[in-house]
Amino acid sequence: MILAIFEKSSQCKQVAEALNFKKNGNYYEGTFNNEDYRFVALAGHVLELIPPDTINPSLSWDSIEGLDQLPESIKKVPVSSKKNLLDNVKFAARDADMIVMAADPDRSGASIYFSAINYLKLQHKHGRTIWFSQGLYEDNVKNAFKNFKHSDYSLPYFYADHARAIADYYWMYLVRLYTWFGRKGALSENLGSGGGKSSVVSVGRVQSALVQLINIRDNLVKNYKPKRFYNFNILINGAEFKYTHDAKLNNFHLYNGYIEDRDNVYFTDQMQANNFKKELQSIGTLLINKSNKKPFKENAPDVFSSKDLWSHCSKKLGLGVKAIQAITEALYREGFVSYPRTKGTHIPKSTYSAEFIDNILKTNENFKKDLQKDVRLSISNENFIPNVFRDENSAHDGIIPTGKNISDIKFDSELIKDAKKKTKVSNDSFIDIFNEIYQQFCLACLQPAKGFKCDVVATVDTPNLTDKKTSTFKTSSKFYDDLGYLIWTKDNKDSEGTKKLFIPEEGEEIKFDRVTLKTSNTAKYKHYTETTLPEGMSTISKNIKDPELAKVLKNASGIGTEATIVSIIDTVLAREYVNLSAGIYTITDKGKDLINVIDPQLCSPNLTAAWEQRLKEIEEEKDPIKAKELSEVFIRKQRNFITRKVNEVKAEYIDKLGTFNVVQYSGNGKPSPKQVAFAKKLSKDKKIPLSPKTLNSVVLTSKFITKALDKKG
């Protein structure tokens, strides 16, 4: 008998139903592909690292003694409320010949599974990994069981997550240290103030980098002044030749008049621009150096990754990222869409068939029937395989419908009701998001757009703005013979073929009558919103100067993962480092203090980039023995790093205790009636404005009273 261990009960139940297994007490049992199975479920992480106080009983939030003594090894113990689930697994495994992983296909899923079997001393029975990347619909479940991964496949994922978990654990020592200094008034008025968790000075490597990201954007919104820049166009027979600047990011500083802004180079000298325009007009002739006409093809778009879906649905449906993810997760658990926490945007080529696509189309037959008709027409060509069906080195595929008809959705199911409770959305939002995923899949299956384009390079015989002997202009014209998928995404595409293409002969001299001097301003910065903040986290590599680390973080899609971004944002909001109002994120005074006080290295994305580089190496190591060794090296280095930082922080702040007046409280954080009355009296007597926001917080009210009493008059 083979025992399959699932990450959660809902997942276990759905897979059992897909295979027609029967419930037997706490388990499901049945036969598939001539093998007997028993299914048992956990409930997420059922084991946790023991608290620092348990390892060293002398540790206390009221003391900094022992915070420089980080343990070399840390055991995991059962979460008290979930111990019975481990007992279930142990009993279910008593007569199992093999145990297989059937958790979520990622680091976290591997960690949940291997942590459980290691704790129960069942690792010797581990034999396979069932990788549910295509969702929990019947056909996909059967396919996952038929095409299981080998026994070692998921071990590197476990070692990577274990390394991350231990390293994050070590950071708790730094958090305790900063919190103690904060509560003792050594850091600032705001850090350490508050009650309970809000008084904790969180210096998590990802949270701190996120606070800094929002802080930088706030400063840019406040202080950035748009810069005026100039460009030049020459118009001939409807074609627009644009001036080509030879100044690039790596050399613009060598030339007068050029600046850099957000990785773009601009020309800003108005006098030079006017003189250059006059010189071009006086010559009035272009020499065609290169004229290249060729056919082109534009493939249909890929299916959604998690972040693509968040961005698309935020803009189109007006939903927040948290709501979109909760809804998509519920649709996945109910079997309507594939795994929703993914970087992938493709579908494995091995799954392609007209039948596969047709089964998905049938899940939403009343939605845009003409689009469905076009998809069926596209795939009727036996020589055509949509570009989205391809093989990539990725653990996860893009998000697609699974083949379960959306008309079967039950809005009174526990999963759907729980998602609605969390997100405060209507039933329509579930259908809307499914429709967007369905439509994107349809678009991805359409024929590419095809046509012709002509790229032309020409010169004017006058020195350019970087003192070269000639000035280069370029134009490109493009027309579509076949709009393909574009007929569903863009309007007014020209499909009259090549007759409108501007195709001059090489060596031809063409006179022109007009040069335009185009004046523009660099764009203003905008505050991060619920839509743009996840995008900002994904592109934070732009803030890293080291090209190698920047590349690592870019490849890792920034800070946070599809599974953690929402919770990271929630954490900085709960810590009162960031405020969310009318859909806009701004930094608070407390957040500013955090950035100003803690070691700059701790809020730099460089640190996360270095982490991700090492963790990716562990995850992608095919040899589990080497993966384990890499994990141990990473953990040892992180222990040394945090030990050094603890000693540095101690030395910096031990003589600053009591420097600031820090307000702490218990209860709901509201000022007492006496405090409110006293604050109002001081406001009236000393003619100091008092806002309702101040009277809603015991911290702000206490600070107001202190400052008012210090004021003379």
TrEMBL record:
It catalyses: ATP-independent breakage of single-stranded DNA, followed by passage and rejoining. Keywords: DNA-binding, Isomerase, Topoisomerase. Residues 1-137 form the Toprim domain. InterPro entries: Topo_IA (IPR000380), Topo_IA_2 (IPR003601), Topo_IA_cen (IPR013497), Topo_IA_cen_sub1 (IPR013824), Topo_IA_cen_sub2 (IPR013825), Topo_IA_cen_sub3 (IPR013826), Topo_IA_core_domain (IPR023405), Topo_IA_DNA-bd_dom (IPR003602). The keyword Isomerase applies. It is an enzyme of class 5 (isomerase). Pfam families: Topoisom_bac, Toprim. The keyword Ribonucleoprotein does not apply. Residues 154-642 form the Topo IA-type catalytic domain. GO terms for molecular function: isomerase activity. It comes from the Bacteria. Its EC number is 5.6.2.1. Belongs to the type IA topoisomerase family. This is DNA topoisomerase. It comes from Pseudoalteromonas marina.
